[in-house]
Specification:
- This protein is an all-alpha fold.
- It folds into 2 domains: about 30 residues; about 100 residues.
- The chain is about 60% helix and about 0% strand.
- The protein is built from 7 helices and no strands.
- The chain is globular and about 40 Å long.
- The N terminus is likely disordered.
Length: about 140
Amino acid sequence: MNGGAVLCVALAVMALAIGAGCASAPAAEARPVVAAADVEGGEWFAQTGCTKCHSVSVYGIYNLASTAPDLSLAVEDVPRRFGRSLDEFFHEPSGTMAMVLSTAIPMTADQRTLAITRLKEAYRLHQEAAGAGRPVASH
């Protein structure tokens, strides 16, 4: 097998393993509670489950095992990747996030609106840090 084929097989095996783990979990475990609206900052992302895959560097949360984008940059990253605003994407996600937001982290419309607010807050803090000359994370 060439390198590309090996990578494809490895990714397929990982996807099956993840899917099997989710499929075997009881319904209560597969549907985590989204953090309450009064939970602030990085704790909101952690309680909601976002940090299982994503870093949120502006809050000092780093997922070193992940290749998922840093959520501190979602406001600029989503339009570049998907050609839609963060608001549009989050209310009608595609790709991996469509699956995540329908099964692993299901959210009501109000919870999605709160998630967008939290993502925009993280981006604003990221921009402020960059403007102040503090180190900021990149992709």
